[in-house]
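User: Quick sanity check before I run a bigger batch. Here is a single chain. Can you write out its predicted 3D structure?
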Amino acid sequence: MSTLNLTGELERLIRDITARIPQLQHVMPDRLLVCVSTGRTTRGGSLAKIHPLRFAGGERSVKARRGRRSVLCTMPTIKHQGEEMLYVIYFLVPRFLELPQREKLITIFHELYHISPACDGDIRRFPGRNYAHGSSTKSYNLLMGKLVDAYLEMIPEHSSLDFLEGDLASLRSRHKAIVGRRLQAPRISITPA
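Assistant: Done. Predicted structure follows.
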């Protein structure tokens, strides 16, 4: 039995997805840090989350109001293998691993689609009040399902997705260990302006 490097497999898959899917070809996988985080429970809550490391328009710092004071908000710098990261994506385990394979793929696509078309460290912004998902999260995820289906038709061999097959218990039965990169969530620095 081998060790499953979950973040390594997710990085490999993200490279393949962004190379094949036109709507995601703007994503630069080398500027995206993939991590795992432990969820409190297997039911409910988030499955994954993306942390952009820039503000709107790719700005590292912005001035904001905090009560009556003006403050400077600055994003942290995160480097990996000598490269400055623009995004951190966390997959929450065990919740993410308990999903059926297609739902895991929809979750991956969901987070990748949040990346700004400029891939400048900001998120994709839709018009209106719900700027993160557009008119509705349900419509957003329906689009992700269509992109997943297109991806599955493109890849000749689905064995590269074996690490997404089954739940946590079945993965544990197939591997001597499951490992992944962990990183504390980045925090914005706030100083008086």
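The chain has a mean pLDDT of 91.

User: Great, the batch can go ahead then.
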